[in-house]
């Protein structure tokens, strides 16, 4: 393929309910889609981060510059544009995994469409549908939380994840356990809100039989997570701290995590995500696919990844309706607690023209035209 045109489409889509985590509250999915046009096919992707660098160091406006000034000129200079050549060309630019993932995914979508292969097939998916978990934000009251969890369980979600922070941890977990029972698959995500000094406090979570505690301590501090894991029965799962397969191998070797959250965006794309999965799976460490409140454009390829053999825990791959009254693609609908793995070529979906038009704030040509 040869790169002809790249368009950036900034979109803003209201969330059905505000999503509060230990680092902030989101009310809108405010990001951009990337539309890559080559001489043989077109591809789409979604940038996973937010306008502010609160979850990770990348952010919407910064990623546009990285793409425009560093990644796209290198992609355009390739005699042959495909993901095999794109990855080494992007490697010269340090960091910026989420921006790289956006470009690689759009190119991969085009590439796979050009030969009619679904992403799930390309990655080696072994499932046609994947169980759906749901991530539940921090609420004003325990009563609000219990109502939300009850609603999600009523819809069929098979696993609940509670966002926690100091002051909102033992009580909500206890309340959910008391109300919905010991059998409910339940886990928590602190998004780096604690320190090792909280180890004794976090150990009190052990009595609730959680599947895992996600990213309790500072990002990239594998040593501290390993120290914490020694003191907890609850498996530590890393999210923010794992940027590639090498980090993942180190974390597993150090016993800094016993479960792996793989987010393709956070590790630079689906090719590296597959390697993260492989290294964890080879060590017998369970993997699950995380989420970033994606629209259908980001959700579709995540479902393909969630169908890999090592993804043995339900992911944060919820239905479109958990996030949006109206999605930008055909909505993903929960059936019997599962979502279908897309089976059309590439990522398997594209924006619906009407929805795209209504949600678009700005479009710019980043390359060509
Ligand atoms: O830490 O897993 C996280 C959403 C945005 C950014 C980070 C995280 C999350 C979630 C929700 O927990 C996952 C989802 O439903 O997409
Ligand atoms: Mg997380």
UniProtKB/TrEMBL annotation:
Enzyme class, spelled out: lyase
Signal peptide stretch: none
Superkingdom assignment: Bacteria
Pfam families: MR_MLE_C, MR_MLE_N
Cofactor: a divalent metal cation
Keywords for this protein: Lyase, Magnesium, Metal-binding
GO annotation, biological process: menaquinone biosynthetic process
EC number: 4.2.1.113
Any GO molecular function: O-succinylbenzoate synthase activity
Start and end residues of each Mandelate racemase/muconate lactonizing enzyme C-terminal domain: 142-235
PANTHER family associated with the record: O-SUCCINYLBENZOATE SYNTHASE, O-SUCCINYLBENZOATE SYNTHASE-RELATED
NCBIfam families in alphabetical order: menC_lowGC_arch
Name this polypeptide is given: o-succinylbenzoate synthase
Recorded name of the encoding gene: menC
């Amino acid at each position: 393929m040869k790169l002809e045109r790249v368009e950036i489409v900034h979109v803003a889509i209201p969330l059905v309910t505000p999503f509060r985590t230990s680092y902030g509250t989101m009310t809108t999915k405010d990001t951009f889609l990337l539309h890559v046009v080559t001489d043989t096919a077109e591809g789409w992707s979604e940038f996973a981060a937010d306008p502010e660098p609160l979850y990770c160091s990348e952010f919407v406006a910064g990623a546009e510059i990285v793409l425009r000034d560093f990644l796209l000129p290198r992609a355009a200079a390739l005699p042959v544009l495909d993901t095999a050549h794109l990855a080494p060309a992007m490697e010269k630019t340090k960091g910026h995994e989420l921006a790289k993932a956006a470009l690689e995914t759009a190119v991969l979508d085009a590439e796979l469409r050009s030969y009619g292969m679904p992403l799930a097939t390309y990655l080696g998916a072994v499932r046609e549908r994947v169980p759906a978990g749901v991530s539940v934000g921090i609420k004003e009251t325990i009563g609000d939380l219990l109502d939300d969890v009850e609603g999600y369980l009523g819809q069929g979600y098979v696993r609940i994840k509670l966002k926690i922070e100091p002051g909102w941890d033992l009580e909500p977990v206890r309340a959910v356990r008391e109300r919905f029972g010991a059998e409910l698959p339940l886990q928590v995500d602190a998004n780096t809100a604690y320190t090792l000094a909280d180890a004794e406090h976090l150990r009190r979570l052990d009595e609730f039989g959680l599947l895992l505690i996600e990213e309790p301590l500072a990002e990239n501090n594998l040593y501290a997570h390993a120290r914490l894991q020694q003191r907890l029965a609850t498996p530590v799962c890393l999210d923010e701290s794992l940027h590639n397969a090498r980090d993942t191998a180190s974390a597993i070797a150090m016993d800094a995590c016993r479960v792996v959250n793989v987010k393709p965006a956070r590790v630079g794309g689906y090719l590296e995500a597959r390697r993260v999965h492989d290294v964890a799976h080879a060590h017998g460490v369970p993997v699950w696919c995380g989420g970033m409140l994606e629209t259908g454009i980001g959700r579709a390829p995540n479902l393909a990844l969630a169908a890999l053999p090592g993804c043995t825990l339900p992911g944060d791959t919820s239905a479109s309706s958990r996030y949006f009254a109206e999605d930008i693609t055909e909505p993903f609908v929960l059936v019997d607690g599962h979502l279908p793995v897309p089976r059309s070529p590439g990522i398997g979906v594209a924006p619906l023209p009407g929805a795209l038009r209504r949600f678009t704030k700005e479009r710019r040509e980043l390359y060509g035209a």
